[in-house]
Amino acid sequence: MSEKLDTSPEDEAIKNEAREFMTGLVGSGIGDNTAECCTENPTPEGAAIIQAWISKYSSDNDGNQQATIMKDFWSIYDPYRTSIWSMTYDEADSNENLQETIDVTELLHKPEMVNLKQNHDCFGVVHVLEDLSIEGIWLFNGPDPTKMYSANEDTSWYTFTQIGPEANDHVKAAVAKLLMPTDDGKLNGKVIKDTKVFP
Q1: pTM over 0.85
Q2: Which helix (H) or strand (E) holds 89?
Q3: Residues 94-108: pLDDT tens digits?
Q4: Which end of the chain is least crowded, N or C, by CB within 10 Å?
Q5: In this structure, are residues 128 and 91 in contact, taking their beta carbons and an 8 Å threshold?
């Protein structure tokens, strides 16, 4: 597998600053202020929501249509306990083939992520596209991906952008596109070559 391109302390400092900025965003341009809508830390209530959604997704995804699955998602989602974030891989240009790119997504299954899975702190769907880019969507217990940053250093290879928190039509469309793509196996006009669900 190719090495990550920007490994210098300067580059990592820039990424850390970007993370801090994303954590303090006054919304994503699609929704409203996270700080006003979500608790500062993960909560048992948020974990229960993640657990309920994992159960729903597992059962709903067995042949049900996108509309049914998304209806269930929004019936469970709580902007005061959980947050939704899209994820884009920053180093797609360094990948040389499809298998190498799929291997990159496997790093999100590192043992360090076990506690997050056991505590129901996150749920994610990650797609590898034909141009070797990686796009995903995550539901987190709490206002941001901070706990995943701490658990898995490979998340520094990705840019996370909040979607919401208000569940308006624009937000619902953005979430559905990533969570349940229906465009003949494509996302943003590109063929989806691999999809992984976390946990």
Answers
A1: no
A2: strand 82-89
A3: 888 999 999 999 888
A4: N
A5: no
